[in-house]
Give the backbone structure.
Amino acid sequence: MNPSPRQTEPKRRGRRAGGEDTKAALLAAAREVFVERGYEGATVRSIAGRAGVDAAMVNHWFGGKEGLFAEAVLQVPVDINALVERLLDGPDEGIGERIVRNFLAVWDPIDGGPFAAMVRSVTSHDQVAEVLRGFFVQTLLKRLTTHLGVADGELRATLLASQIFGMGMVRYVVRFEPLASADVDTVVKAIAPNLQRYLTGDLG
Amino acid sequence: MNPSPRQTEPKRRGRRAGGEDTKAALLAAAREVFVERGYEGATVRSIAGRAGVDAAMVNHWFGGKEGLFAEAVLQVPVDINALVERLLDGPDEGIGERIVRNFLAVWDPIDGGPFAAMVRSVTSHDQVAEVLRGFFVQTLLKRLTTHLGVADGELRATLLASQIFGMGMVRYVVRFEPLASADVDTVVKAIAPNLQRYLTGDLG
């Protein structure tokens, strides 16, 4: 139609629906839109539009916005909704332990994988920190504290985030021994009670 | 003397003893030598030699190797020996609180200052992580656990490091609210008991 298409911008409409290139296009678009608009502001529609694919493809490939975020920004293919269900499935007093076990189950098999890159990205770009805040505090952790019905839910969520970040830093990035190589049960016994206190204990 | 001095390498011998340029030369040399040899391997003599100044200048300007490390690598002008004394000055059951208050007293007034840069450096360079490990775990935190006479001192030290790192990340780098702006007493009440458990409590 346009006799002189702009060579610098790839043609996005007409992409094969449902293929691996659709998935890749959604990941690339998601990274851009999440950083531009924050987690809350980045709608599935806007990301799909940027990728030039149908919004239904987000559910098809990632199970929804949270899964797309996890894979695009956290770079971990984890089903966030299923994760939250696992965390909430059991007695409230065991949630600290379930958090540690699920965290290690995601990151240990890939030896931390992109954890260092994620932390580096956060320290370099204010927008990435803002996106993570929107996701972790407002979405993931808020669902936990809402479920638990505790006061000071946002403070508890940020305290939880501080210990989880720090655990990831020591285990996968700076690799301080013996915590970096400690077996899962040792880490659970050491850290889970502290997470539990942040979520359901007395904060003074 | 040499009729054709190499323009690309600054002349280091003959630097004015005791001046600000001596201090700057020591800082630059320390960054190199700590990264090359690790915290333990970097001697005061080797750093002073690299800087082309007398080793006594390290004591003069930084109170010793630890103070030089703090200013060169952590980029915080803090007297580590005096800090350790403050942390150990009081009942053992108050050490968690003293750690939080002293950490915030260093970093809050400069709003985190170089904390993000330090974290970024750690995530980019394995050697920096190794230097930090040598300093924090082997030196600073070991002095605390040795003083407390607790078993599993190194595990406790790394657990402590995980929560302190995470607190710094949330308060100064990703700035998750409300923890990022919470007043000191709120942070102390929330986090100090968890640090205390890591240092003197039952880890399972």
The radius of gyration of chain A is 19 Å. Residues 1-16 of chain A have pLDDT under 50 and may be disordered. Chain A has two domains: 20-74, 80-200. Chain A is about 70% helix and 0% strand.
